[in-house]
Amino acid sequence: MRLKDKVAIVTGGARGIGEAIATLFAKEGARVILIDLLPEGQDVADRIIADGGIAEYHCVSVTDKSTIATLFENVHKTYGKIDILINNAGITRDRTLEKMSLEEWDAVIDVNLKGVFICTQAVAPYMKANNYGRIVSAASNVGLRGNFGQTNYAATKAGVIAMSKTWTMELGKYGITANAVAPGFTLTDMVADIPTAHLDAIKASIPLKTAAAPIDIAYGYLYLASDEARFVSGICLTIDGGTAR
């Protein structure tokens, strides 16, 4: 197993890509701590446990600095280490530039950017003390090329890439890698309401002529979180079926 006895925190682990990451990591031997505001996170943890894995769910917002700090401290006390942090939690509030409200801007910045900062800042001391760590954060190909109606989302995802490169410089001497994953169009609940005709057009625009499933993205996270990627740091792994950028 590629993550045997590793302790992995996965934010946004209740559904979609986060659920796929948590489930895959558990199958690969990790002890998984799921963080999400959605109660379905408990269902994910229960399924992992039923399949013989180790998991626990915590209903916590990644924007709640004090609660995150306490949770990470408790995880460290329980398991003696934190090996992996997957910063996957994210939201969208799409609107064109001139129509986007400050509340829509702030909401996306708070979760997608500040939440990543809060969780990584909280985990860094534990990883440094252990001289080992894997930090993998959710970017997007939108952060590389932009997207109509997503000024806020694109800004956060570009920011995640830049933060990951910075953490590589700051934390690398402690055996900690920091990378980002930039998924392309992925079939999650977030896109479930897209009309069939529009969905078909999106698939046609992808060179592989299909959309990603959450597990396709999860395997990228698995590689970057594993010891196989010990010399991979500061990159943004794009998993988008070859979409033009």
UniProtKB/TrEMBL annotation:
| Protein known as | SDR family NAD(P)-dependent oxidoreductase
Query: Which UniProt key words apply to this protein?
Result: Oxidoreductase
Q: Which GO terms describe its molecular function?
A: oxidoreductase activity
Superkingdom is Bacteria
| Residues covered by the Ketoreductase domain | 6-184
Which EC number(s) are documented for this chain? 1.1.1.-
Q: Does the keyword tRNA processing apply?
A: no
| Protein family | Belongs to the short-chain dehydrogenases/reductases (SDR) family.
